[in-house]
Amino acid sequence: MKTITVRGIDSILSEKLKQAARKEGRSVNQVVIDTMKQRFGIKKEKKYTLVYHDLDHMFGKWSTEEFEQIQGKIDEERKIDKELWS
Fold this sequence. Notes:
The protein is mainly α. Helices cover about 50% and strands about 0% of the residues.
């Protein structure tokens, strides 16, 4: 990979790059690279593009009581047995 130095970035552009990076949770360097790839038509391959819909029918269907029951079971399973880990 090459390293390129870009000179002449004014304070307005610098601030815009920093804002975009913060907003997207990425580095300024990655924002610049992605922007250039987009400009020149180089697509960035996404690693995980498959979207599953097999549980969509369950979304929003649990009552509060059902949710609390299921969450209670999950919380029980997350407890650490101190005898096994000491």
